[in-house]
């Protein structure tokens, strides 16, 4: 059974029934960071697997233009990526690959620029294709590029929720705040949640969070929920070298336990249970039309 057949089986199985509650749909989450090197992509991958382990259906979309590396972190060499869907060389069932634990993902890289010049017919085709998979999901995670490019800004402002990843380093703290400031001043309705990665201990994570949250409250009048932290853990580096997600390679490590707890907290939060969401079609329309 090839990847496409496996994906069709996954989507059509009893475990992946469409959400039937009126007004509900897959929740679109973007993961961003003020600067590179904070472990954003690694967090996104392991967070997706943690949500999946809790019974949620998750689609992971590598939207890091020019620096896509989710497939590398998984040790997977995708045959197809977004470009093949846009050029209609492959349908969505072939473009969506299956990673560890049969996690569905769309590889990034080439093709992102083509998105911003689609005709109305091509846009409708793209949206319909993505919806074939996305409508069966509970969450769609977009791993965006580091920093605040024009493209990342569009992702953040179009999604239902944005998880901001930072570390205790002063430059990471400053850049994370700067990103939220620019987005909030332009789109004040964007929902942010803060995650502190590579924290030495709980106290350092709390101190880092307090600095950003106090600045956001004082200068932006922005209530910034702190979702939690991920411990600085040598197992993370070892897992990256092995090209295996650390939540699978070292499930009893501190970092793996922290990510699992973050997933539990997120599912218990108001954001995760909010029923007034736009779904993937609404997200794509907002995202791409903003670029025209």
From TrEMBL:
InterPro entries: FlhG (IPR033875), MinD_FleN (IPR025501), P-loop_NTPase (IPR027417), ParA/MinD_ATPase (IPR050625), YlxH/NBP35 (IPR033756)
One GO MF term attached to the UniProt entry: ATP hydrolysis activity
SUPFAM superfamilies: P-loop containing nucleoside triphosphate hydrolases
GO biological process, one term: negative regulation of cell division
GO cellular component labels: cytoplasmic side of plasma membrane; cytosol
A Pfam cross-reference name: ParA
Descriptive protein name: MinD/ParA family protein
Upper lineage: Bacteria, Bacillati, Bacillota, Bacilli, Bacillales
């Amino acid at each position: 059974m090839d990847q496409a057949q496996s994906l069709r089986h996954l989507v059509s199985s009893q475990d992946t029934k469409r959400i039937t509650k009126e007004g509900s749909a897959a929740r679109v989450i973007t993961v961003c960071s003020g600067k590179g090197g904070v472990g954003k992509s690694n967090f996104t991958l392991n967070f997706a697997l943690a949500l999946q382990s809790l019974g949620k259906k998750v689609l992971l979309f590598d939207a890091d233009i020019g620096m896509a590396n989710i497939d590398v972190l998984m040790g997977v060499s995708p045959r197809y990526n977004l470009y093949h869907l846009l050029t209609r060389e492959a349908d969505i069932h072939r473009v969506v690959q299956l990673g560890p634990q049969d996690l569905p993902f769309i590889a990034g890289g080439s093709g992102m620029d083509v998105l911003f010049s689609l005709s109305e017919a091509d846009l409708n085709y793209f949206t319909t294709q993505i919806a074939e998979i996305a409508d069966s999901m509970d969450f769609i995670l977009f791993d965006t590029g580091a920093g605040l490019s024009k493209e990342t800004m569009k992702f953040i402002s179009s999604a239902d929720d944005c998880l901001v990843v930072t570390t205790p380093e002063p430059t990471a703290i400053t850049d994370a705040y700067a990103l939220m400031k620019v987005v909030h001043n332009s789109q004040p309705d964007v929902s942010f949640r803060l995650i502190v990665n590579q924290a030495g201990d709980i106290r350092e994570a709390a101190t880092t969070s307090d600095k950003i949250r106090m600045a956001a409250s004082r200068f932006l009048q922005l209530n910034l929920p702190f979702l939690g932290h991920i411990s600085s853990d040598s197992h993370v580096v070892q897992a990256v070298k092995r090209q295996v997600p650390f939540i699978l390679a070292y499930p009893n490590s501190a970092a793996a336990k922290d990510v699992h707890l973050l997933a539990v907290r997120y599912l218990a939060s108001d954001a995760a249970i909010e029923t007034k969401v736009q779904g993937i079609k609404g997200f794509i329309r907002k995202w791409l039309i903003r670029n025209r």
